[in-house]
Write a structure and sequence with these properties.
The chain has 232 residues and is of the alpha/beta class. It has a single domain, classed as Rossmann fold (3-Layer(aba) Sandwich). The chain is built from 7 helices and 8 strands; from the N terminus they run ααβαβαβαβαβββαβ. Strand 4, helix 6 and strand 5 form a beta-alpha-beta unit. Helix 2 packs across helix 3 and helix 3 packs parallel to helix 4.
């Protein structure tokens, strides 16, 4: 079943509602659930015995936080994550997530090179989420340039970084990830996704919230935190 997608303003309103008094969630909870969903989508898409090395490209906001959580879970799933994390916010939440990764001895890089990208089996794009707008600037412009040119499979968290959340690829950013993991529900730009697999993660959404904002909650199999959905 194809799922409805939502525009940026609705996606923002859903997050506000989830973290409101009536929603009851904290940002820590949502980030943990999102990162676990991303890690499980990676696990379902790749065999860690064949493709163990995964470069997780971490942005400065919540999308990056999801990537840090995913890194921790992927380590425990048998993968070998490393982090490209050029701007590391001082906010306690991000510092704690980074500490958790360092406690697993995950390599952390502040600069990216072609060699770092090419020696990885998989790239996890956790740079920018649905709140991003405008042009991509350094230091992230360089890594997105590698996204454009690499043959390595890319997994994007929520939306491909640098895309317009409504209209998809731009004149500056046009890479297509192999795997897209939409969080809570797909965003409008999903109609431009031409990759191999599309997952939705959000097994925490109450039916009343989905009804209020007019989006679909898919049927998650067994104990899975993600469900694969058809690509339009």
């Amino acid at each position: 079943m194809a799922l409805k997608s939502v525009p940026q303003k609705i996606a923002q309103a859903i997050d506000v509602e989830l973290m409101s008094t009536s929603g009851g969630f904290s940002i820590d909870q949502l980030m943990e659930l999102a990162g676990l969903s991303v890690a499980q989508a990676v696990q379902k898409s790749f065999d860690y015995k064949q493709k163990p090395s995964i470069l997780i490209c971490v942005g400065p906001g919540n999308n990056g936080g999801d990537g840090l959580v995913a890194a921790r879970h992927l380590y425990h799933f048998g993968f070998k994550p490393s982090l490209y994390y050029p701007k590391q916010p001082e906010k306690d939440l991000y510092q704690r997530l980074l500490t958790q990764c360092k406690n697993l001895s995950l390599p952390v890089y502040k600069e990216v090179t072609g060699d770092l990208v090419e020696k990885s089996d998989i790239i996890l794009d956790a740079l920018f989420g649905f709140s991003f707008h405008g042009q991509v600037r350094e230091p992230y412009k360089e890594i997105i340039g590698f996204f454009e040119s690499t043959s390595k499979p890319i997994v994007s968290v929520d939306i491909p970084s640098g895309w317009d959340v409504e209209s998809g690829p731009t004149t500056e950013v046009g890479f297509q990830p192999d795997v897209l993991v939409s969080l809570t529900c797909p965003k409008s730009c999903v109609s431009h996704f031409k990759g191999r697999r599309h997952f939705v993660g959000g097994r925490f959404v109450p039916p009343t919230l989905a009804k209020k904002f007019n989006f679909d909650v898919p049927q998650y199999p067994d104990g899975d935190q993600v469900v694969e959905v058809p690509i339009k």
